[in-house]
Design goal:
single chain; 272 residues; alpha/beta; 2-enoyl-CoA Hydratase, Chain A, domain 1; 2 domains; 11 helices; 9 strands; 47% helix
């Protein structure tokens, strides 16, 4: 079981800040539009896995520095070396990148992506794997894999993207690798909202604060059900939700909400 102390955690490949239950993860190679490397993939994966056992963190913001979100895998530090690997090495890499998405979907904390500028390749996947996405009008998102001779089915894109924007639109983006404009992204449901660049982090933080002050145990249950109900029948989904809701009804937060309602006050949730 891997744990991290959010107050002392010092990652090597991205910036981390923690306050009031909110963790902020910032990809910080602005001179290259914040690309990912073998090491940053792995460190991000390990961090999201550790958040399962870190209840002090109640919400996560993911952003990029310098006016861009993430340009994807670093051409020189990832793409070049991959051309020299054998099948064993290649599969080790593709499974590791997929594990990042599994870790993001598997951590109970809601993840808010703050997207500005370029959001491409693996960067688009990180945005896709988040729970809520805010973007600026200058955000440009592309699943670039076919442009480098790869399939569009990377890191869960063929499973998740159609559920966000529909099969036809996902097919177009994954086949062509073209950039989706911010306006398209909002209209299609990829972006929850477009905001001015100067308001992006404020908007993301407001959402994260709202989530962090809510019933965080119940948020984790909600995220689990959103993930697991993809592949079950309606009857099974309803039974799963009945059991999940019964579990939530045993929490102190459920009692606190009732008592606050009865007293005509706002509930103060504590996540238990």
């Amino acid at each position: 079981m891997t744990r991290l102390d959010p107050s002392t955690f010092q990652p090597q490949h991205f910036r981390w800040a923690f306050a009031d239950g909110i963790a902020s993860v910032t990809l910080d190679r602005p001179e290259r539009k914040n690309p990912l490397t073998f090491e940053s993939y792995a460190e991000l994966r390990d961090m999201f896995r550790a958040l399962v056992y870190t209840p002090m963190v109640k919400a996560v913001i993911v952003a990029g520095s310098g006016g861009n979100f993430c340009s994807g895998g670093d051409v020189h530090e990832i793409i070049g070396p991959l051309t020299k690997k054998d099948m064993t090495g290649l599969l080790e890499f593709t499974r590791m990148t997929g594990d990042l998405v599994k870790a993001m979907r598997g951590c109970p904390q809601p993840i808010v992506a703050a997207i500005d500028g370029i959001c491409a390749g693996a960067g688009a996947i990180v945005a896709m794997a988040s729970d809520i996405r805010f973007a600026t009008p200058r955000a440009k998102t592309a699943f670039l894999f076919t442009r480098v001779g790869l399939a569009g089915c990377d890191m869960g894109a063929c499973a998740i993207l159609p559920r966000l924007i529909g099969q036809g639109r996902a097919s177009e983006l994954l086949f062509t690798g073209r950039f989706m404009s911010a306006e398209e992204g909002e209209r299609w449901g990829f972006h929850n909202r477009l905001v001015a660049p100067e308001d992006l982090m404020t908007t993301a933080m407001e959402m994260a604060r709202s989530l962090a002050s809510g019933p965080t145990f119940a948020h984790g249950i909600t995220k689990t059900q959103l993930n697991t109900e993809w592949a079950v029948s309606l009857d099974v989904a309803i039974e799963m939700e009945a059991q999940a809701q019964a579990i939530c009804m045993q929490t102190e937060d459920f009692r606190r909400a009732y008592e606050a309602f009865a007293a005509k006050q706002q509930p103060k949730f504590e996540g238990n």
